[in-house]
Amino acid sequence: MAGKNITETARQMLSAFLPEHGYELWSIEFVKTGKDFYLNVYIDSEKGVTTDDCEVVSRYLESRLDEEDPIDTNYYLVVSSPGMDRMLLTDAHFERYSGTPVDVSLYKGFEGKKIWSGALGVRTEDTLTITDENGCERSIPRALVSKVRLQVIF
Q1: 70-92: per-residue pLDDT in tens?
Q2: What's the CA gap between 8 and 76, in Å, rounded?
Q3: Is CATH 3.30.300.70 correct for 3-80?
Q4: Please, which residues bridge with residue 113 across strands?
């Protein structure tokens, strides 16, 4: 089964279970790292995510995957939190964290920089807007944006 089909199958398996138990699916990916394959499932919760939460989701998904056996190769199932420096991926993520400090990594430089930091603004089809610590607003072309992560501020 192709990676996209695997992630969609796992997503469907989790679609009712996660909300019933107070979790949200942040993202899911099936990747090869070295010689090994990993099904990485990232969950979130309003109360935060503990190792116990990851275990609950892992046990549920593992039993469903064993039952249906949709993956025809050996793999590791990893369930975790997206972390404090979580990557923003969907429109809902960008809307939720509007105004929050982020780090934006670019594929290539924009105005002489490959990494921008500031408060997350509007994301349109073409641009991502951030406001730096001096109040200067920048609209970065989305085609240049590699990753957007929440800043970890202590």
Answers
A1: 898 999 999 999 999 999 999 99
A2: 17
A3: yes
A4: 110
First-last CA distance in the chain = 43
What architecture does CATH give domain 91-150? Roll (2.30)
β-strand 127-131 against 36-44: which pairing, if any?
unpaired
3-state secondary structure of 67: helix
Give the CA count within 13 Å in the CB-facing half-sphere of 33: 10
Domain layout of the chain by residue ranges: 3-80, 91-150
Sign of CA dihedral 122, 123, 126, 131: positive
Confidence bin at 3 (pLDDT 50/70/90): low
Give the residues across from 80 on adjacent strands: 42
Helix (H, G, I), strand (E, B) or coil at 58: helix
What are the start-end ranges of the H helices in the chain?
3-14, 17-20, 51-68, 91-96
